[in-house]
Amino acid sequence: MNRHAQTVVLLLTGGALLHAGSTDLYLRYVKAGLQPLLIGAGVVLMAAAVATLWYERRATRSRQEDGAPAPEPSESEGAPDPDRHAHREPRVAWLLVLPLLALVLVAPPAAGSYTAMRTGSALQEQPWGYPKLPADGPLKLSVADYAGRAVYDKGRALAGRQIKVAGFLALDGHGAPYLVRMALNCCAADAQPVKIGLTGELPPVLQPDSWIEVTGTYTPKRTKDPVNGTAVPYFSVASTRPVKAPQDPYDEAWNG
What we know:
With 256 residues, the chain is of the alpha/beta class.
C-alpha cells in the first residue's frame, strides 16, 4: 500500500463517516449524542488524506526540481537501497478496506428480537426515585420507565392508570410475547434489551420485530429473565396498534 492508496482509503473512510453522521445512518452504530464526534472524525480523516496527498506531491516536485531519480516501486522488486526511503506499508494494510466497504455497502439493521431474547435484560439498578407522573389522563411511558417503576417502585404510581408503551415484539422459545427496546451505553455493540412481558388481549398473530403500541394497565405479575435472572415485569394489554419504527431505534433514556 503506497501513499496514494493510503490517501484514497483515508478519503473514502472520512467521506463515509461524514455521510453516516449527516444522515440517520449513524444511529445504527452509535448513540445520538456521539454525532458531533463522528462528523469531526470524518473531517479529520479527510483533512489527513488531503495533507498526505499534498506532502507527497510536494516531495515529488522537489525531487524533480533537484533532478533526483524517482524512487523505485518497492524493495521486493529490486536490490534494497539503504539511501532511499520507501513510503510503503505492509500489504495486510489493505484489510482496512473491508470495514470501509461494509460501512458503504451494508447498512446493518438495528438489533432486534433475535438479539433481545439471547441477551439478559438490562434493567438498571434501583434509582433514588422517579419523576412525578401527571395526576390524570393516560400515561405514555417508555419500556425502560415502565419496567423500572413496575419492578422497583412496585407499580405504586402506575396502579389504576391507563398506560401506553411502544416497542418491538419478541417471542421466547415457548412463544411468550415480550415488548422490548434495546438500550445503549455507547454504541450498537453494547446494546442490551429492556423487556416487558405481555398478557391480556393480544392479537392472534404476533410477528417478531414488528413495532406496536400497547394500551393497558399495570399488573404485579413478573418473572425472571432466563438469561441473567433479572426481574421482568408484565403489562396487562387491553388493545394494540401497529406503529412505525422510531427514527432512533435505540432507547437512551435509561442511562440519561
